[in-house]
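Archive entry: two folds, one per protein. Generate the first.
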Amino acid sequence: MVDVSVVVCTYNRAESLRDTIESLTKQKAGSCSYEIIVVDNNSKDHTKSVTQSFNGKVKYLFESKQGLSYARNTGIREAKGQVIAFTDDDVIADPNWVESLQKCFRETKALMVAGKIERLWNCERPQWLADEITGPLIVQDLGPVRKKWDLENRHTVGANMAFHRSVFERYGTFQEELGRKGDSLIGGEDREIFKRLFADKAPIFYEPEAIVHHKVEKERLSKDYMKRWFWDIGKTLGHGIEFKKSYAFTIAPLWLWKKLIGSYLRYFAVSPKPDALDSERFTAEIWARHYTAIFVERFAHWLPFNWGSTKCIFHKEVSNDQK
């Protein structure tokens, strides 16, 4: 029996994937046995040959249905481990990552474990990138001490999360209507499965010794990428708001209206200022776009033929920390 199955889902990132696999094959796992599974989600590059270049150390799977959740569920079906861990094709895993995850499961009886994610800068940070819009540059750090995850408003991140295999038998797998599909940046599948477990009071732990380093690369540090990311994540959040009869008149919660109006007031206040920094202008534009995207999605649910039929993908509304 394998202790840990590591599942890496990938799409057209063969050279970055090579670095990820390399770090996974060099794990100091001790007595912990593990397997590496790569799920190729319709890549058009040389992903398959990169995977096969590791001479049988990696199991290669092909998933033709486009979407990260489809790929993750394929990995789950093929995994042999008692623990199924997920990471991305643009990370470098710390040499003790697998062993630290398995140790946390063993010592805490957790059903889900989230590890630490550190940024690995491979390029210079642009001056227009303000701290408040670094969301696309993934990080996960709850401090240096292992702890039970008690933050409902901060979900675990898919680049470093692991589950006891019984989770998928009891709670089901990833929602396949969510998650990235091809070049779309709409996500939410990691948030949704976290919400299911958290709502049921399943034991979820943060393990700071299980570290992955998430690359920050030049192609993701463009204004166009940031605009797309915040727009698509806005649509994801809008789609996840629970339907209520009162929204037949307001479309969305009143606090979201305040956020939308506030973002536009900020945008129109900053844009004409001749002495405004580029970072100020761009940040204001990003938030206006983000909240507009939420309302675009909410409007689609508000239309008469959708009244009363909207299915809530998340168990609760957009997190309270956005109020």
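Generate the second and append.
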Amino acid sequence: MQIVLRQTFPLGRFHATPWAVNPFDDPHGEWPPSPWRLVRAIAARWHQWAREAGQQPEKAELENLLRAFCASRFSFYLPIFSLKGKSLRQYFPQEFGWHPAEKKKAGTRSYNTSLAQDNYWCLPSNIDNAVWWLLDNGDKWDDSLLLTLDRCLERITYFGRAESFTRIERNSADAPAPNCTLEQERLAAGVGAIPVLVPRSDATREQIEQTTGNLNPTIPPGAQVMYALRPSRPPARERPKRKSRNRDTNLIQFAIGWNVAPRRQVIVRLTSRFRGAIIKELLGIKSGNRKITWSRASIDVRNAVMNMTGKDASGKPLKGPHRHTEFLVWCEDGQPTRILVWRDQAPFDEDEQAAIFHTASRELAWAGNSPDSWRVKLIPLDRAVPPPPGFDGVTAKVWESLTPYVPPRHHLRNGKPRDRESVNAQIRRELASRGFLGADQVSVEQIGDDADWVTVHIPRGSAKNRAFIGDRRGYQIRLTFPVPVNGPIRLGNSSSFGLGMFKPVSEE
């Protein structure tokens, strides 16, 4: 018959020191738990049960129980993720007296202290946190002994030191196969075997019940040393934990930190590089290959990232309202202070948010690609930070340029203005295409006489015309609508990369 005991430690720790071992010199800790400790605990709890029942203890019953234990062969199933905890050291009070003890020195009366070291083993908090005792003995156990064993086990509340709260019960259902056995010789157990104190088959009740002060300091009478090889622990591997994201957001804000502030004229370099790095990260998440590019990605992967790139699997721009992600910049006193990742239609999914935040954790260069180029650090802003004006749903009639407006078409030909392609006409036409009310009646006013030369976004397919396109003139514009309108308003060339941003202003 095989007896199976299931032992758990509710606090996740087993505090014990092997027999006759100094805690300060204990290299292993008692693991697996000692069968000698278990048989002594059962003997003590049998006496407790006899006192609670109010009957005279029958020595034969206890002796038969202990004899069955001593004649059994022990093996264990130990949690494979258990590990020895870092030892704790504590000072305990002892005798009360003068300190210092010399009469010629001034002193105070207080307790002496004694340093003690607490060694323990930690157990995992998952379902695999039980120690299984497997006792093999064919003819020593019967039903009456099993009932007596159950009464003793249910009274064991701690095991080892008093802080090792435990529960032990007899359980033969779903017992796992042993992963730790006991051998007589260390070499037979294997390299790294640990000594374990086990009761001998001829141990008597008197030997088991002796107090520790009367026992042999090395091996107590009735006990023997056997050797156990602990199960190998799997290599530790970090479990990636994805940060919880806001599933219903289409605006993510980042504060811009710098040593040298990026100039407003070159903010498109910053947003273009940020967008490119996010697309590369998102392609790696969707495909499982961190080195993949859009041109080498499959059609399914391209379709999965089209809301971020703004183009379908064939490379054509998405039709209909603006469905792609835009990378906008908010400025304070003429300096960029925030990057806004915004999309008008669908909110960002989990993979898109993971790609955005992972890319933002790295510094971005805005002045060049060399290691010494000026860089910025993006700091995520949580939902407690309100969206900037224009993104909060507040309407306004008057809107002014926050970043320079660059006309998408040339409004000069041979140095002469083209009435059809004037700045006013292009703005009204674009406002009408975006569905703004009163677009044909909007008042367009240029603020200031000078135009700024700003960098615009050059699509990858137009790189060969870089010298022809170059930087473009940007204007500061004030728009006055006949009726209040909602934002955000971003117009002109590179409006998805931070140029042409407008902010609402008071009519006064």
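Annotation attached to the second fold: The longest strand covers residues 88-99. The chain has eleven helices and 26 strands.
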